[in-house]
Amino acid sequence: MTTTTHPDYRCRPGPLHSILLGGSVPLFLGALLSDIAYSNSFQIQWANFAAWLIAGGLLFAGLALLFALANLIRAEHKGGRPLVYFALLLITWVIGLVNAFEHAKDAYAVMPAGLWLSVLVSVLIVITAWLGLSNLRNGGVR
């Protein structure tokens, strides 16, 4: 009787990659909360806070995107969850960049598009971080 084992190749993010990915979540969520506060109070400083938080989130997510690309390049099997993770992070970053451009507008011109983009980016970054910090596999049976 022969036993065949299927190797389980894992492609987990390293510590710096995890810090950058995990750090982008509160930045984008903070931008969402700032947008909600701005839509309720009309205090322009909330829009400024949101713009700065989005810039920080883009920086962290952009660096995490570079790590995700490196992990995807060195992965033995290029499909599956590592590819989905990279694609989601790229989509999140691009929509976040559009959100940053939206927040560059003056005063209340940011609303309501900035708020909806912040909601979308926040949902996407939470899903992406969940996928990225969970068990990424690029091969194997499971």
UniProtKB/TrEMBL annotation:
Which top-rank group of organisms is this from?
Bacteria
Give start-end ranges for the coiled-coil region(s): none
Its protein name is: Membrane protein
* Listed transmembrane segments: 19-38, 50-70, 82-101, 113-133
Pfam families registered for this protein in UniProt: DUF2231 (PF09990)
According to the entry, every stretch annotated as the DUF2231 domain falls at 15-134
Give the organism, scientific name.
Answer: Pseudomonas cremoricolorata
Instruction: Establish whether keyword Cytoplasm is in the entry.
Output: no
Q: Provide this UniProt record's keywords sorted from A to Z.
A: Membrane, Transmembrane, Transmembrane helix
**InterPro entries recorded for this chain?**
DUF2231_TM, UCP029509
